[in-house]
Structure formats: structure tokens, C-alpha cells
Amino acid sequence: MSIDSSLVTSLNAWGEHHRTLVRVFSNDFVYLALLLAVLWFTFTILKTHPLKSGLKDFVVNYLVKGVTIFAIPVGIAVVISESISALYIRQRPFVAVAGVKLLVPHGADGGMPSHHMVLLATLITTVYFYEKRCGILLTVLALGTGIARVVAGIHYPSDIIVGTVLGVATAYLYRWSLLKFLNQKLKLTD
Predict the structure, then answer these.
(1) pTM, rounded to two decimals
(2) pLDDT (tens digit per residue) in 44-59
(3) In 13, 29, 85, 101, which residue has its Cα 20 to 30 A from 58's Cα atom?
(4) 87 exposed, middle or buried (CB, 10 Å; 0-12, 13-18, 19+)?
């Protein structure tokens, strides 16, 4: 049995006795992290473009910066993740490993990489560029989600790691490319 399978089997046995906790961590923490990221972003935009200067100015900045800062890198990461899943079909632990039970409802499609972790890692890395404390809080939520998805029998640890690396790398490469582009366009550096 591989290390991946052994970890899933051990954690899954523990999780059978803590199903509610597993469900909250594996699913609800994703929504909490998304909500906190959106709230942070909204308050950040409100600081630089308060509503008293006009709703239109706020909405335009919110949408333009939201797409530029979040939607594009998350979209790129999701496309890459979905492409990997289509090319490399790996059965989920609850399907492939004897004795592993599915503790949270989920389909039996391929699980490599974890799309939850790709989304969270891209989003959190982007937030971290601007606000380290919020990024660290979101990282704690994402770690809880990743571990809980292994406990639930949905993913192997390697699915979580690959999803996280893919999300972080996409966010860093996107930011590097964007800053390089802006520097050249605006001639900020030689």
C-alpha cells in the first residue's frame, strides 16, 4: 500500500467518528474562505474608492480590479486543473482503496488535482500579495479543508499537494507576468 493510500485509510478511520466535523471542514471552510476573501477585497476597494465619491466609480473599480486581480488567475488555474484531470484520470480513494468510506457526498470522478485546493491556493496567494495577515488566516482555513478532504476519502494527500502547488504557482506566475507587462506598458522601469 502506498503512503498516499495508508494516510487516507488511517485518517478516514478517524473521520468516521467525526463526520460533522469532516463535512464542515471539507466543504464549509471553502465557502468561509471565499467569503472572507470577498469581504477583504470589498473593504480594500472601499478604502481607495469610497461610495461617497460615486457608486459608479466604486463598481467600475471593483469589477475591473476583481477581474484583473482574482478572476483571471483563478480562471487560468482552473483551466489547467481541469486539463490535468482530463488527461490523468485517477480514481478517488473511496473508489480505489479497500476500507475507505466516503464521509461527505461526492461523485466518483477523477480527483487529481484537487480543484478545491487549486481554487483556494490561487485565491489565497493573491490575497497574500496584498494583505499577509488575511492571507495567513485563509491559509489556515485551506489547510483544514485539504486535510478534511483526505479524511473524507475524497482525495489522496498528493491530490491536495498538487492542487496547492498548481494554485500557488499560477498566482505567482500571473502576478509576475502582469507586473512585467505593466512595467513595460507604463515604462516604470528600464
Answers:
(1) 0.89
(2) 888 877 777 788 888 8
(3) 29
(4) exposed
Among 97, 87, 91, 77, which residue's Cα sits nearest to residue 8? 97
| Integer Cα distance of 100 and 146 in angstroms | 17
Q: For residue range 117-126, what is the model confidence (pLDDT) as tens digits?
A: 999 999 999 9
C-alpha cell at 16: 468516521
In order of their start, the domains of the chain are 3-181 (1.20.144)
- What confidence category does residue 179 fall into, taking pLDDT thresholds of 50, 70 and 90? confident
Encode 42-60: b = buried (16+ Cβ within 10 Å), e = exposed: eebbeeebeeeeeeeebee
User: What is the rounded distance in angstroms from the CA atom of residue 122 to the CA atom of residue 51?
Assistant: 29
